[in-house]
Every structure is written in structure tokens, then in C-alpha cells.
């Protein structure tokens, strides 16, 4: 994958082979390298953003910078720096701007940066190094220390090639299965000693000493003095600007148009003159509702370039191990359609993918529920979040894990509760969103973007600084259940707001009562299909063509996925059993319940197979 890799040379004579091994672990991309006296570092990229060779140096050659990603909207700040005497070789060079801003303002420069990025600034003579990520940590940087040196990379697998000791962090196994819907709790990874930087942070390293500090934090502060109309107008203006300033290059942009609201909002915000640069695409099983709704959207706005990518579940099973490799085991085989689709959109010539990342949650309130809204104290909130994000219940986790892991469960619970207590926000619903952003979005949802960036670059208008500043002031009651989102979409485009929302199959701007009825109806249909499957013992199969893919059905009916299942967690010789981590009989029970239609265990099966593949990739020997 693209990104940054490197290590310091504090009193160490390190061969250049270490950097080359780390670069090779990342994949085949455009590479810039720097071999200094205090560090070795490389940047890997797709040749789309910031294509100038790096590092970029300041005027006296004392400070260098290497960047991954892109920042936006800094033109006025650049003019101010020019007035202060700073020289710019190019008008729009992100790295050069960041470097001069850092020279002038130090660490205070980071909070104003707007975009999706990670970068390093270093003084090779003095041996100082600063690593910085964006406000939401959308381009993760992993790090470890060894022999008083710092090793860092955009992927864990690169750090292992430094080489770094490959020791499984057994506590992560417990986190993964207990709260897998959040991703891996905290900053841990699958490997002992390797961690991920917190979002909106800078890491400073000098002579074996490290400091990590946040330069910004999400500050929810509801403004009840403003009416909904005020927030809608502010959001529309800020969002239109955010989307269109990210469509500046003469390259083809892609939008993953689904039946949801996020990509629809991005399309609605695009100025007409930018339509020629946009190629929408929609993926899903043949004739699914996602495809039908997406066609209505492109027709309504007059977007001519729209490609339908049909998913054949049997074709996707071969991408299962690739998902584990690309995400360092932090996403599951259930998203094996992502690398398949990403390959297809690259073939279309798409260079940058416009993402609706986080919008459904931040503006749509999709991870709020009644228990969270009604929480009266931190205990109520903790119980609500625990229920929402539990993968294997406490009783199931005791049956699933081997005896040598069970003693860690209490500590994992304590860590979960501590993170809830420390979540920031002026209301309990806002605290819940802060918690979810810090966990699920940063460690799990983001992994879809990590996979995408193996093939195409990505731009995230939904986390634009000005857009987020508006959202943090919206009372949670307005955001809950997409209430304000509906009004926002209607203000962007009445036509698009009148098209059905795939989660309800009624128009997006319909009253809440119709949304509730639509969701109830769709749940009822799924219940009937599962009941027929169960009663007929698999002889009556009514395919679910509502969403782009239903992994619950895929596990039951796809020969390729059944084969993967048989070769992994139904194999007595699998590493998860041989190494003494999981209870084989309980895993078989989980699979049997799913295939008999007793309960939908597809998510749990995906997590179990992902763990086995992770062990095979890294610990087969």
C-alpha cells in the first residue's frame, strides 16, 4: 500500500537493506527515498497527489519533509507566509507550504491543516523527527521502538520487515472477538510493541526519547440557540465548497454511488462544470436495489458516466486473504468485494475516489439509538454502547476462547469502560459519537479506505474542517435518525431527496414514520426468507437482492465461500486450534447455527476466518 516508511539511526549503523525490505513489503508504487545520517525514510505513492520528488527542503536545507495524502484551502495562508519572507518554488505544493508553516508556527501549524494526510518533518543534522497525521487519523501511522530507535510505517507489515520481533499480542485476540465491531480497542495492533498513532497527533522523536501529543480534538458543543434551518444553510455552503475544491486536478474522479445518502450528497454538491470529471460507479449483485436506486440518482442529476459493477460472490472469495494482508488483519473477509471493486474502478481510469467517510455517522446520527439518546448517566451510556458494539457476548466469549486467554477478558472490559468514561462531549449522545469516532471509525470503518488506496487515491470532503465545525454545534436530537440530514439533502437537491433511501426503500426526505415502516417491512421480508430456508432445510432459497451483497446468504450458498470455510475454521488442523487460542467445538456450533437458519452468524464467521488467515499469513511456520 502507499504511505511512509522509515526508522531512525540513533547510534546504529543500519544497512539500507532494511528500508528496501520495508518498501518492498508495501507493494509496487512510485517511491522517493532518503538515506540520511540520522534516519532512513521513503514515501510510496500512486503518482496522483504531490508528484514532485521528495523530500522537499527549506531554504537553508536544514529541514526536510515527506508527505502522504493531500491538504486543501491553504492559499490565503500561503500568501501570508510569502509576506513574511518565505519563498515558494511552486504555487501549490502541499509539502512546501507545510514546511514553511512549521518553520513559522511550530507545532501550532498543524491544527489549521485541512485534508487527509500524514507527513514527517526532520532535521537530519540534529537528528530530530516529527510525524503528524490528520484530524481523524485517516492515513494511519504505526510505530515501534527498538534499541532506542523509532521504526514507523503506514502498514504494520512493513515494520515487521525492519525486522521487528513478530510476537502475537494475545490481548488483541480478546479485543477482536469481544468488541470486533469497534475494531481493535485503543492503539494496539496484532503485534506486541507495535501501536498506531492517535488521530490529530504529532509524534516527536530525538535521541531515543519520544513524545506524542494531540494538536486538536473533536469538541462537540451543541448550540441550541440556532434553528435547524441555520445549520442546513451553513452545511450546504460549506459542503459545496469542500466537495468542489477537491475536484481541482485534471484527472478522472470517481464516486461510489449506492442507495445510501452519503455518496448522493457528494453528487448533489458537485458543480455542473465539474461533471465531466466525474465517473460514478455502483456495485452489487445483479438487479439489487442498490443498483436500481443509483440509476435513479444519476438520471436525476444528469450524470452521464455511470458504470455498474456486478458482484459474483464466488469471484470474491479469492480476495479474502488479500483483505487480511492489506488491512493488517484489522478488517474482515466480509469486505472482500472492496479490492475486487477497486481493481475495476482503476481499469475505468479513475484516479481519485470521492468518499462519504463518516457522514452517515457525524451528520446522520446512524450510531445513535434510543438507549443512547435517553442515557441519564455514564453507566446508562456504557451499557448502551456495550450492547451496540458487542460481537461475541460475555457468555459466548467464555466458550470461544481458550483458558489461557479468558483471564484477559476483564481487563478488556475495563479498557472499554475507561474509553467510554473518557469520551468528550457536552451530552451523552455526543460522548457516544466521540467514542465511536475514536474506535470504530478510526480502527475499523477506515480499513475500507486503506484497501481502496491500494488502487486509487481518495479525497474526503465529509471531514473538511469547516464542515465538521458546523456538525459539532448541531444538537444530537437534530442529528438522530437522519433528521437534519434529510433537510440538508433536500436543500442540496430536492430531486435526489425524493429518491428512495435503500435502508427504507421510501423517499429519502419522507417523514420518520414512513422510514420506520419501511425498515420494519424490510426486516419482515428477511425474516420470512430465513424462516423458509430453515423450515425447508435449505431447499427453498429466496435470494436477498436488497443490499449490494448479503454475506449471510453467501456463506450458505456460495461454493467458493463454503470451501474457504471448510479449509479454515472447520479444519481440525487450523492454527487457531493448534496454537491453543479458540475452542473448536464452539466454533462448529456457531457455523451450524448459521447454516440451520437458527441465527445469522455471518459476521462472527467472518471474524473467525479472518483470525485464522492472519495466523497463517504471519505464523504458519
Describe this entry's structure for a reader.
This protein is an alpha+beta fold and 621 residues long. 44% of the residues lie in helices and 15% in strands. The chain contains 29 helices and 19 strands. The strands form four sheets. The protein has a six-stranded antiparallel β-sheet with strand order 2-3-1-9-8-10. Strands 4-5-6-7-11-12 form a six-stranded antiparallel β-sheet. Strands 15-14-13-16-17 form a five-stranded parallel β-sheet, with helices on both faces. Strand 8 (142-146) and strand 9 (149-153) form a beta hairpin. Helix 10 (320-326) packs across helix 29 (602-619), helix 14 crosses helix 17 (409-421) and helix 25 packs across helix 26 (559-567). The protein is globular. The mean pLDDT is 93.
Key phrases:
single chain, 621 residues, alpha+beta, 6-stranded antiparallel β-sheet, 29 helices
Q: What's the helix and strand layout?
A:
Blueprint: E1 3-8, H1 17-26, E2 30-35, E3 39-45, E4 56-57, E5 64-71, H2 75-83, H3 94-105, E6 115-123, E7 128-133, E8 142-146, E9 149-153, H4 156-160, H5 170-178, E10 195-196, E11 201-206, E12 209-214, H6 228-244, E13 253-256, H7 262-269, E14 278-284, H8 289-301, E15 306-310, H9 313-316, H10 320-326, H11 337-347, E16 352-354, H12 359-362, H13 370-373, H14 378-389, H15 394-400, H16 403-406, H17 409-421, H18 428-445, H19 447-452, E17 457-459, H20 465-471, H21 476-479, H22 483-492, H23 494-497, E18 500-501, E19 506-507, H24 512-535, H25 551-557, H26 559-567, H27 575-578, H28 584-595, H29 602-619
